[in-house]
Write a structure and sequence with these properties.
about 750 residues; alpha+beta; 30s Ribosomal Protein S14, Chain N; 35 strands; about 25% helix; disordered C terminus; cytoplasm; repeat; B30.2/SPRY_sf; cytoskeleton
Length: about 750
């Protein structure tokens, strides 16, 4: 709002503002400086202000005449006095030089610039030696040109007093000054080291920082790059009096302020509004003045009407201002985007070249790290072997010296007391030096050969290409992030660092683990993918390619991944019956119910040979736990094997039975108790299932022709607690027992 309160001539806040006929405002002192005095001779007018045609003879000035009211020096003094009044037949013709109906704005010759950038018309001094027109030469007329719209207005006999004072604007300026003074007193310097900070003296509009006088001299001197910064008084805040709120001095009409009186009749207050002249008038103006025949309305009614019109107009301006703010934000964002994109584009070539060098440097560091690791590994192995061999040598040497001392003794009975133990110790010491113990575990040679030929060829082939959309290049597999766990594999890849072609997604392909055809296992935008449910002890080949709107790019190199030889798994809490209680990291299971409840393992098998064991931690009251395999949709609220989704062996303290579809077969002697171990052997290569108790096979293979996907399974009640052991190879005793049945 501050710009609305500044005079267009002096650039400062309005002082005694007057309203020009064009509705613009100007300070009364500034109006005196820009008003133009026009004597009848017009000898001192600027060239553009002279009337068309040759100057009249009367324009010559009497030599030796003193400066009078018609001169430039005396014009300001007589503008608002009676000496400005005049008449004569040439008055209307002179006014035409300053009216809107003349040749445009030729009457206004901008020559100086006010502080806020508006050019004003200065006073024109008399030529040297020219005398002022004598008083009898004829009356002089004055005009005032608006510094904003350049429209001219003639002054009547009252001079500048004929213009109305803008009392409303004057009151607003007064409130604003009070509020700014209060805010200046409350504002604190933002750079002060003192506590509390000193009051702020100025605000730099460019830096947006408040300075006290000392900090301004120290941190913001008026020289160098700061010379062009604009320093303003500390701004008013909305809560300060007169700073946009209802502070002091903001009383409405009649709230204690003296009512304005008529300019024509000093003793009369304004009571009516002349619609024709668009100005407030008093009762006496209507009776005897020029407004007697004009359309006149009540002042209060017109006040409310114009307020309503202004409010309605402000709504439209407010909407446009809101749109303008949004548009400015959009433009500023556009500026920022253009700036950022321009900088990115300018840095593109340098960045690409730097990326090549950086990539080579990083690769060099990686290769050096590999060499360092290999060297440290070899040194560690050799030092470990030295320390181990030294220790064994010291022990063997000590034993030898001790045995020699024993042999020297002549006490047969004492010798025989310790000879057996010494002989065994010597034999054990000899067995420590097995074959290969005295051979280096590593060689001094480094089996590392750097293949730099492809890179050199790529550097020689490096050249500019046409920047157009092409299919994506070959993705690079990140082997350091590719891994396997149990029967799942994780693959990671990335695009080459200097690739400019857009990528919309990737296609990951995997074979069947037996050298078969590749198949798509993933399509998407991610560069990391885990595939579960693969076969154990199997070798898989994987490859990936990228695609975009132009097509599908070439395949990456093929990576070979080996799944685990044996399965590591636990009980699955997510699929277990709600009565099952798991502990020991889901490796130990029991139950809250006296009825049998089922829990499955977290692994699923469809291929290979798998073996796991269950240790009976607690066995009370001769329950019948069941061990076996099941499909994912097995019924979990009854004994394992009673439905067609499970194959199991249930056992008591004396005997065991095989059960599937609630059919009991192959009763075998031999039960379980606390501390017993039950082994389950699932051979999906031969499609059979075999059970063991404490290493002894329970009958022939329990079930034949088993095919599909199976999960380890167990059913038990609250009288039993078992612990699962996985990641086991088939024990030798189990292999020997199993052979006659194959």
């Amino acid at each position: 709002m501050e710009e609305e309160l500044k005079c267009p001539v002096c650039g400062s806040l309005f002082r005694e503002p007057i309203i020009l006929p064009c509705s613009h405002n100007v300070c009364l002192p500034c109006a005196r400086t820009i008003a133009v005095q026009t004597p009848e001779s017009e000898q001192h007018l600027p060239p553009l202000l002279h009337p068309r045609g040759p100057a009249p003879p009367a324009a010559a000035a009497a030599p030796g005449a003193g400066a009078g009211p018609g001169t430039a020096a005396g014009s300001a003094a007589c503008l608002d006095s009676e000496c400005a009044a005049g008449g004569g037949g040439d008055h209307a013709d002179k006014l035409s030089l300053h009216s809107e109906t003349d040749s445009g704005y030729g009457s206004y010759t901008p020559s100086l610039k006010s502080p806020n950038g508006v050019r004003v018309l200065p006073l024109v001094p008399a030529p040297p030696g020219a005398a002022a027109a004598p008083r009898g030469a004829g009356p002089a007329s004055s005009s005032l040109t608006c510094p904003q719209c350049h429209r001219s207005a003639s002054l009547d006999q009252r001079g500048l007093r004929g213009f109305q004072r803008n009392r409303l604007l004057e009151a607003i300026v007064q409130r604003y000054q009070q509020g700014r003074a209060a805010a200046a007193a409350a504002a604190k310097c933002q750079l002060c080291d003192r506590s509390p900070p000193e009051p702020a003296a100025v605000l730099c509009e460019q830096c947006e920082v408040l300075y006290c006088a000392a900090c301004q001299l120290r941190c913001h001197p008026a020289r160098g790059p700061f010379a062009k910064h604009r320093l303003a008084p500390p701004p008013a805040h909305p809560g300060a009096p007169g700073g946009g709120g209802d502070g002091g001095g903001g009383k409405g009409a009649g709230g204690g302020r003296k009512l304005p009186t008529c300019a024509e009749h000093d003793l009369e207050n304004y009571s009516m509004y002349c619609v024709s002249c668009r100005s407030p008038v008093c009762y006496q103006c209507l009776e005897e003045g020029k407004h007697s025949k004009h359309d006149v309305k009540a002042l209060g009614a017109m006040w409310k009407q114009h307020k309503a019109q202004l409010s309605q107009a402000l709504n439209g301006v407010s909407d446009k201002a809101k749109e303008a703010k949004e548009f400015l934000v959009q433009l500023k964002n556009l500026l920022q985007q253009i700036q950022e994109n321009g900088l990115d584009y300018e840095a593109c070539l340098v960045a690409q070249c730097d990326a090549l060098v950086d990539a080579l440097t990083r690769q060099k560091a990686k290769l050096l790290t590999k060499v360092t690791k290999e060297r440290e590994h070899k040194l560690k192995v050799v030092w470990d072997q030295i320390n181990h061999c030294t220790l064994k040598l010291r022990q063997s040497t000590g034993l030898m010296e001790y045995c020699l001392e024993v042999i020297k003794e002549n006490d047969p009975s004492g010798f025989l007391q310790i000879s057996d133990a010494l002989i065994k110790r010597v034999q054990v010491s000899q067995e420590q030096w097995v074959k290969g113990a005295l051979e280096p575990k590593v060689s001094a040679e480094f089996d590392l050969t750097l293949d730099s030929e492809p890179l050199l060829q790529s550097i020689h082939q490096l050249d500019f290409i046409q920047m157009k959309c092409r299919v994506p290049p070959v993705p690079l597999l990140q082997l350091e992030k590719c891994c396997t766990r149990n029967n799942s594999v994780t693959l990671a890849w990335r695009m080459p660092p200097l690739s400019h072609n857009p990528v919309e997604g990737y296609i990951l392909e995997l074979d069947d683990g037996d050298g078969g055809q590749f198949r798509e296992v993933y399509v998407g935008k991610e560069t990391l993918c885990t595939i579960d449910g693969l076969h154990f002890n199997s070798t898989y080949n994987a490859r990936v390619k990228a695609f975009n709107s132009s097509g599908v790019g070439p395949y990456s190199k093929t990576v070979i991944l080996q799944t685990s030889d044996v399965a590591w798994f636990t009980f699955d809490p997510s699929s277990a019956h709600r009565d099952i209680v798991l502990s020991n990291d889901n490796q130990t299971a029991t139950c809250n119910s006296y009825d049998d409840r089922v829990v499955l393992g977290t692994a699923a098998f469809s291929k290979g040979v798998h073996y796991w064991e269950l240790h009976v931690d607690r066995y009370d009251n001769h329950p019948d736990p069941a061990f076996g395999i099941a499909r994912i949709n097995v019924v979990k609220d009854m004994m394992l094997g009673k439905d067609d989704k499970a194959w199991a062996m249930y056992v008591d303290n004396n005997r065991s039975w095989f059960m599937h579809c609630n059919s009991h077969t192959n009763r075998t002697e031999g039960g379980v108790s606390k501390g017993a171990t039950v082994g389950v052997l699932l051979d999906l290569n031969k499609h059979n299932l075999t059970f063991y108790i404490n290493g002894q096979q329970q009958g022939p293979p329990a079930f034949e022709n088993i095919e599909g996907v199976f999960m380890p399974a167990l059913s038990l009640n609250r009288n039993v607690q078992v612990t699962l052991h996985t990641g086991l190879e088939v024990p030798q005793c189990v292999k020997q027992t199993k052979l006659p049945n194959n």
